[in-house]
Amino acid sequence: MSTPRVGVLALQGDVREHVAKFxxxxxxxxAIRRPEELGSVDGIVIPGGESTTISKLLGIFELLDPLRKAxxxxxxxxxxxxxxxxxxxxxxxxxEDQQTIxxxxxxxxxxxxxxxxxxxxxxxxxxxxxALHAVFIRAPWVEDAGRKVEVLGxxxxxxxxxxxxxxxATAFHPELSDDLRVHRLFVEMLAQA
Length: 193
Ligand code: GLN
What we know:
Helix content is 24%, strand content 34%. The protein has a single domain (5-192), classed as Class I glutamine amidotransferase (GATase) domain (Rossmann fold, 3-Layer(aba) Sandwich). The protein has helices spanning 15-24, 51-60, 64-72, 82-86, 181-192; strands at 5-9, 28-32, 43-46, 77-80, 88-92, 104-109, 119-126, 132-137, 141-145, 150-155, 158-164, 167-170. The chain is α/β, with parallel strands linked by helices. The relative contact order is 0.18. A hairpin with a 2-residue loop joins β11 and β12 (167-170). The mean pLDDT is 95. Strands 2-1-3-4-12-11-10-7-8 form a nine-stranded mixed β-sheet. It has a three-stranded mixed β-sheet with strand order 5-6-9. Glutamine (GLN) binds at residues 48-51, 81-82, 85, 110-111, 137-138.
């Protein structure tokens, strides 16, 4: 693949911020709202926002099953915050009817940090050994993860970034900070896929 094309799910949330990060890496990124558009991208980003709202809109826009199928068939995906919740196979503290796309063998607790504090910024331990400045907004954390899940980042011991093969998820919002490492990692994953 020479130049990958990334789709950013554009139902709700910080879509433009993700598009801008890929632009900074010279990667083409486009907003996606229709099932047909999934075939034209090499990977999909599920942005931060509100997972219950995105979940409802996925049903209304008839995107839930197409996304599950595409990701199940190997389409790389990256979810930040609400997007992490949506890529989790299991969630705690979701609303009663809340569905996820799933894909990553993990249990994610919604608003996990929020019970202590709504939003905060913190330097977290990142996989490459260098600290990463992370923005958390009513963030979830990963309560438990299956054997295939690689932990990439922790904050105060809590798992806040994971990778399972071609799926990546962070509890924080790299689209809202200056560090490009998370987006660069996803671009590398697209090249490997
Ligand atoms: N708490 C939100 C949710 O449940 C996620 C917040 C965010 O994406 N910043 O979806």
